[in-house]
Amino acid sequence: MVRLGGILASLAVIASELAVHAAPSSPPRFSPRSTHLYPRHENCTAPSNPLVTAPKPNPWKPLSDTEIIDLLSWLHAPAQGLNLTAYENASTWDNWVTVTELLAPNKTDVLPYLDGSGPAPKRYARVVISYGATENPYWQEYMVGPIPVVQSVTKIEPLNYVYNKGEGKSPNYAADEESQRIWLSLIAANMSDITLDILGTDSTDSNFRPIDPLWEENGRIISWVQFWSNPTSDYDSYTLLPQGLYLKLDITGRDLQGWSLLNILYDNKLYKSIDEFRAAWISPGFKKLTKQVDGQWTGTGQTGTAPPLDIRSPPIQIQPDGQRFAVDKDAKYVEWMDFAFYIGFNRDTGVNLYDIKYKGKRIIYELGLQEAIAHYAGNDPTQSGTAYLDSYYGFGPDVFELVPGYDCPAYSTFLDSTVHENGNTTNNRNSICLFEHDAGYPLQRHTASSYLSITRNTIFTLRFVATIGNYDYNFDYNFYLDGSIEIKVRASGYIQSAFYAHNEDYGYQIHDATSGSMHDHVLNFKADLDILGTKNTFERVEVVPTTTDYVWSTSPRNTMRLERSSVENENEGKINWATNSAAMYFVVNKDQPNKFGSSPGYRIMPGTGTPIHLTVQNSSNLQKAAEFATHHLYVTKHKDTEQRSAAAANSMNPKDPLINFAKYFDGESLLQEDIVVWFNLGMHHVPHTGDLPNTVFTTAQSSVFLSPHNYLLSDPSRATSQQVEINFDTDDVAVSTFGSTSPSCTRPDLVSVNNFFPKIGFCSLFFALS
Ligand SMILES: [Cu+2]
Fold first, then answer.
1. CATH of 65-159 among 3.10.450.40, 3.30.450.40, 1.10.510.10, 1.10.238.10
2. pLDDT tens across 585-595, in order?
């Protein structure tokens, strides 16, 4: 009774404190541009944002607009002899510059700079040139530098050293896509009488989606295309409208006279020509399949009756004391609590984090996305032939602006991102958000007979969202007060569906003629951990059942024990998460044992969901282009020549890709070496009716944790003052909040919202809903 009364009394004390800071019952009217929304009192002003200057200029800082302009001018100069045409003036038979961006510096050049008095690494640009003035169009990658351009000093040379194919050169089968589209429309026009009957559309009202990657058959370049209906509304629903007609095309070479229609597939029957298909169509007994028709079912706007009380504003988080982290926006450097890191950004994969330090010591040199696969399957050639490698399309240009209050808390700090490609500068404002948020559950708690101890669980998140065609990938890097880092991916947006006919083994029918098409999402990440130096070991600790005699036991006992081992070399470096989670994996430093003899390290483990590897083995589509997807995680020895697990151009030549990850595993020792971990996130996605109209993030997510393990001598989160201890053993209840202060303001600072959408009236909507 004393105990319960004590707790209630304690809560009353806390409640009375909070009451002082409660929001006013009727908020004052405010101007949308007011800097003091919902003030608690006249002088409610949150502390200003803390300032920080990066300890050293960011060696991964993207090239500036000026550097890009000077670089393009230099590349186009006759002296370079590249025979370039400005992209806006170029035909498919010209050469032009596609990508210009920073070439990530070599680790061996960066470490002496970051850790000592070494010079800043020279900046080089990665330049990709599309060579169209040839019968065999190709892309060639170059390194150009040093940057900024200095005449007679800056040089250009092929960028080969990071590609284990031996050269940064790849065929470009996309060079004549526009000609192929026009040619395809002519084919479709020749069968409009048929398609109007069986699909309800003709060549002008359909779109044609090809397989990806293209196939090579007996030296010929083969594509299958499927008819898809165009949406009848403004909603982006084209991937929900497949029709059951497929064309097999030979698109070898650049002369359309050499292209040919090879087959037509309808209702699982193969025809050799339009004439043969037409003959079947007009013959008695021809079976016409159900057409998929667009409608309200594909729109994402509010429909149906809202649930009870749903119209009321839901809870929102606030940042009552202002920002508790510091950002050097120019250097793209961030400090939160005991963490610090630099941000890099590139065309292929978007955001990368570098030089992540915890308590002043580097734990990760590089952390970032490498590639994202969406591998489909189905009874038809489109689904069977689709295995997207999304870095080909590029995450960087598709990291779009985030909406405060919906994508990220309204009080978030936002950063811009920029990509230079094909003569365009894509500057996506406010496309990366940084914010703290409450986890919604405590980080720690304990109730004892005389006291209660609880710690707030505050997470710091870096978030960006890349919309690659129909899919929206949400990437979170979550930092925790216990020293953990969580890497999380969620998927939403429109599924790529399949036509329903004959597809029962590959998905559920989810609409009149649409099947949810089974597919695997596998997203590969690089985590170059450096624990107390670069020399580390990958350790495995298994929990195993055993039967053991003890000196004190009268008979053998059935129990369990630990089995410790190390991944000795790269031949053992392909690893799966253990069944029943019976193995734990760590990157440790064996040269610096703690006082108990254990090696300090970071554990890598699955978090949300169950990260997967690719189901398909020896994929007919991907061949050697995605060797990073055969297992859950990998360990290799770091090399400057092995920077990524995949290249953007891999999908153009999957049997001989620029980067074949499998070649990284050549038996080198991994014992106390500079090791790199590569891990996969993702999910088996078998869409059901709940994926209409959009997949929701709820279950389409997975994460991995990197977590300190024997790294410190106790839990570092004890250092936070954001905890409470309530002692109720005596009549005098004592509440300690360890010096943490009361909030300065208790309502959200929404001032920045108006600046995000100044032209489209969005802010009025936002304020109405807030
Ligand atoms: Cu999916």
1. 3.10.450.40
2. 999 999 999 99
